User: Which sequence fits this backbone?
């Protein structure tokens, strides 16, 4: 039986990759996801955006979501077609309220290293949603061939 291609509109069809919550393992899903993005004809600018947003989501999952606990997992689900790429990153942490994260562009926060990941994901992706009390980030990039 041939498995149908994952459909970005139907989450139950998504590819799933589970990794341990370490910075080293957090890089592992990137190659597989970008392979699919390239195969579906996304331009280099979109590929860069997806790579950056995925890096930020995975870093946040390791550092903030799972609080650096390597015994916890990060689950990445994704689907790509010619129109769009959808990536969902889920950690095992307690969650957070995105509205409670301070604006990293204010004068008093410019020199601080935290808070830019959310801003970058919002800037580079077409849709960013936080689900499951902030334990899951849903990222969408449309293909503008």
Assistant:
């Amino acid at each position: 039986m041939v498995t149908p291609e994952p459909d970005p509109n139907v989450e139950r069809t998504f590819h799933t990759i589970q990794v341990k919550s370490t910075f080293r393992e957090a890089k592992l899903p990137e190659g597989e996801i970008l392979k699919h993005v390239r195969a579906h004809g996304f331009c280099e600018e979109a590929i860069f955006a997806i790579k950056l947003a995925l890096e930020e989501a995975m870093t946040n999952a390791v550092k903030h979501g799972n609080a650096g606990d390597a015994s916890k997992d990060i689950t990445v689900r994704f689907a790509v077609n010619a129109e769009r790429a959808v990536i969902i990153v889920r950690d095992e942490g307690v969650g957070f309220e995105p509205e409670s994260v301070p604006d990293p562009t204010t004068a008093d926060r410019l020199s601080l290293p935290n808070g830019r990941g959310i801003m970058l994901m919002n800037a580079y992706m077409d849709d960013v949603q936080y689900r499951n009390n902030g334990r899951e980030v849903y990222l969408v990039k449309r293909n503008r061939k």
Summary: Helices lie at 23-26, 28-39, 44-65, 116-124. The radius of gyration is 15 Å. The first helix runs from residue 23 to 26. Residues 95 and 133 are 5 Å apart (CA to CA).
